[in-house]
Design goal:
alpha/beta
Amino acid sequence: MTTFTPTVRPYTLNAAGIELSALLALPDHRTTPRSTVLAIHGRGMRAAYWNAFIPLATAAGHAVLAVDRPGYGHSAHQLPDGQSLPDQAETLHAALKEHAAQYDIGAGVLLLGHSDGGKVALHTAATDGATPLLGLDASGVGHTYDPEALHFPSTLGAGATRLNWGPLHLYPQGTFRASRTFLAPTPPRESAETLRWPAQYEELAPRVRIPVRLTFAEHEAWWHLAPATLDAMTARLTAAPRVGVDHLPASGHNISLGHTAPTYHHRVLAFLEDCLTP
């Protein structure tokens, strides 16, 4: 049996005048993508956060477009203060339109977001764009912050380790050294917007009209995860055809970098299969 290793290449998108850097991986060149996954990294990271997900997705016949969000990567010089979450969503819609003009996206796009990238994915799902969206899978993003997280330390600053990682034994040896290559400063506008998220979510949630799946790590420290709190979060997604909540044992906030990343990624792809089923 031949194992297909995807080619992941740097990719640049002109998103309505904003130059976004990205990573693009396609399934076997003989195969039309079944769909495209728009992978959206979290605060203080870059597109390479999704490196472990890409081979699984392309092996299943999907293309992966992992973007550096506005204010990160190539766009950092153009947007030194970054963009608000709603503006990032508009920029990503423009990026998807540009990408779809050049590449076959298959049946549509799955939004895959982590942490602040999950917030942007929710904003993207709640606003209209030219590209068909299949569903939204987000990890590490809730509705109500845990009281202990209200100090909001910078992702790269002292005191952030427990919030952003959880117990360090949940990650393979060498993860923290390797992750330095794709850490990035958080744009000021993104940090300033943190406190406004609960109100933003309440406003945008009823406008999300695609299936939604939310995943929370066992050692998630940013969010209040009591059942009643999560029920209140999902209840606001009134227009979503279906909403699921998953809890992943033995995991920290950065799920896709930990030992349980394969489990999470396979569940993402199973959700995508459900979204592709009429």
